[in-house]
Amino acid sequence: MAIADQVDGFLRRLSFRWLPGHCVLCASASGRARDLCAACEQDLPFNTRCCARCALPLAAAEALCAHCLQSPPAFVSAVTAFRYEWPLAGLITRFKFGGDLACGRVLSGLLAERVMAALADRRIARPDLLLPVPLHHHRLRERGFNQALEIARLLGQRCALPICQEVLQRHQITAAQSG
Fold first, then answer.
1. Is the pLDDT score of 160 beyond 80?
2. Residue 82 burial (C-beta neighbours within 10 Å; 0-12, 13-18, 19+)
3. How does pLDDT run across 38-51, given as a tens digit for each residue?
4. pTM, 2 dp
5. Which long-range contacts (CB under 8 A, 24 or more apart) does 19-26 make?
6. What whole-number distance in Å separates Cα of residue 163 and Cα of residue 142?
7. pLDDT digits (tens, 9 = 90+) for 89-138
8. Spatial distance between the Cα atoms of 57 and 51, rounded to a whole number of angstroms
9. CA triplet 167, 170, 172: central angle to 5 degrees?
10. Euclidean distance between CA atoms 95 and 103, whole angstroms
């Protein structure tokens, strides 16, 4: 972990001690070291019933979805924290297109909790590294940051995983995924 990341983490913990967080959804004081209050966190659409391989949300508690049974994907397993529904969709939009880094920290923290739980339960193998998807340089200039890299940085800190951002390059600009 870089010294800048350690200093940033220390300052964030210190600031939450003296200036408690405010919920990114309802704007009330969160009362904890997260910019999300407990009531709003309970409203999030956690992906609790899902395919054990691809994490597709399922209506019933089944091990694998029909697609993974018929044509298993090349990967062994995936972890998702949520279903893409309200209010999560709004948090993602604010982070991705509005540059709201507080939303990104909340999303990264919740994802890190799911990843650490999956690692502890041995539902997934510990990854060797995190590989954030790069943005095309035009899109990076528009947004000013790569949201996948920001999530990977925070996830890497919380889960003690290295990040490798030099392997992939985006050569073709594609349409933005906006919901």
1. yes
2. buried
3. 999 999 999 989 99
4. 0.79
5. 24/91, 24/94, 24/100, 24/102, 24/103, 24/106, 25/87, 25/90, 25/91
6. 23
7. 999 999 988 989 999 999 999 999 999 998 998 888 899 999 998 988 88
8. 7
9. 155
10. 5
Is 30 exposed, middle or buried (CB count within 10 Å of its CB: 0-12, 13-18, 19+)?
A: buried
Give the closest residue to 107 by CA, choosing from 131, 90, 122, 91: 91
CB atoms within 10 A of CB 148: 16
**Alpha carbons 69 and 175: distance in angstroms, whole number:** 31
Structure tokens at 121: 């339960």
- More confident site: 69 or 21: 69
What is the SS3 assignment for 91?
helix
Residue 73 Ramachandran class (φ > 0 left, ψ -120 to 50 alpha, else beta) = beta
Q: Give the residue from 111, 103, 108, 113 showing the smallest Cα distance to 36.
A: 103
Q: Residue 116: how many CB atoms within 10 A of its CB? A: 15
102's CB contacts (< 8 A; 6+ apart) are: 24, 35
pLDDT of residue 42: 93
What percent of the chain is predicted at pLDDT more than 70?
Answer: 87
CA pair distance 32, 24, nearest whole angstrom = 13
